[in-house]
Amino acid sequence: MSYDLIVIGTGPGGYVCAIRAAQLGLKTAVVEKRATFGGTCLNVGCIPSKALLHASELFEQAGHTFSKMGIGVSAPKLDLAAMMAFKDAGVDGNVKGVEFLLKKNKVDTFHGAGRVLAAGKVEVTSDDGKGSKKSQVLETKSIVIATGSDVARLKGIEIDEKRIVSSTGALSLAEVPKHLLVVGAGVIGLELGSVWRRLGAQVTVVEFLDGVLPGMDGEMRRQAQRLFEKQGMVFKLSSKVTAVDTSGKRLKAKIEPAKGGTAETLEADVALIAIGRVPYTEGLGLKEAGVKLDERGRVVVDHYYATSMPGIWAIGDVIAGPMLAHKAEDEGVALAEILVGQAGHVNYDAIPNVVYTYPEIATVGKSEEELKAEGRAYNVGKFPMTANGRAKVNMTSEGFVKILADAKTDRVLGVQLICADAGNMIAQAALAMEFGASAEDIARTCHAHPTLPEAVKEAAMAVAKRAIHL
User: Fold this and answer.
1) Does the annotation count 449 as an active-site position?
2) 125, CA 20 to 30 Å: which among 20, 219, 244, 410?
3) What would the pLDDT profile of 403-443 be if each residue is shown by its tens digit?
4) Which position among 54, 179, 447, 449 bears the catalytic label?
5) CB-side exposure of 48: number of CA atoms within 13 Å?
């Protein structure tokens, strides 16, 4: 079989790239090793975690917030099996949706492990379910590597997805652990830690660095940690887990100071290893095909997503940049357009990042630390949610909005939000930055009242020290 394009991997980057290529007239196929499409995000990542975050937040509200609003309900009872079924139904609907879209756009699909034999040749090896394997070779003008990423592992600590789990296992625990140990205070650790804390677990988070959410704006990180601690999470910062003893009924984790010192032992029922993700390039035949990888195992590409081997391209988590589903999607669209001679492009300065805890945390553009490191002069406009009318009346007044604007041009350089619904609110900031807006542009854009996004307008006004409601 011969194609114009074969995409290996059907996560957000892969399936979007394939669909856009098909829309543009390319004969396209995808290769997927899972039984279902959608990659990590739809199957064991973004989608199921958001289902559990939503359900657990409603559970917590029913137990603690409803009564304050005059809603009398008995203490909510957790049916974890039913909650997991709710989560699984959402995943099933999403992956079937991707399957429908591929068929609708006449994209051929192959299930099996894809391997690049050479430029223009992809081998697909599948299992017939009876212990034997079969292979077929597909020919194509272009190959896209969109295989995503895998969980990063701690040396000497084996993940069994039962007691020592990755994000995958943490999405399917059979019961609420009495004590959950989370290794890593990044996005995944805090989101899944939040889920199980709301459902009744004691949560302790161990982080190698000196604060949560490494890489984000420092003021945001400090505020987030205070709020998580107020909710009941316990943090052990500047610390590392060096071993986990699984011989007893409870896990015994050895925790040491990051810079060395006296170790302590912490008992837990489940340990979640959430120290990050690594590009998935294993078994793809990339080195043998002449595709260059960098020191972190990522595929090296140029500005047009071309690898060192002509005819082979790569997008998403396997290349440099933030490991975000929407970043991969944008790259997929851009690459498909580049392949037909159009000017596909991704603005990496306007890619939002969201942490779906409560309150949500969302950023786009530069942090204060990054601007200082660049020696760039900027002005700050900040507005607390305690001064937002809708937030106050809804009892969601935690957090703030911060806008960073160039000191000379007033162009928006970065926006940080920590508040309810920040994940939706960040879209207007990303749109503003995409079109080169100034803080003044946002400040003079009429926002509906009463809404939470008014806080973004007020923060923009605060850049020029003229916020109204402060």
Assistant:
1) yes
2) 20
3) 999 999 999 999 999 999 999 999 999 999 999 999 999 99
4) 449
5) 25
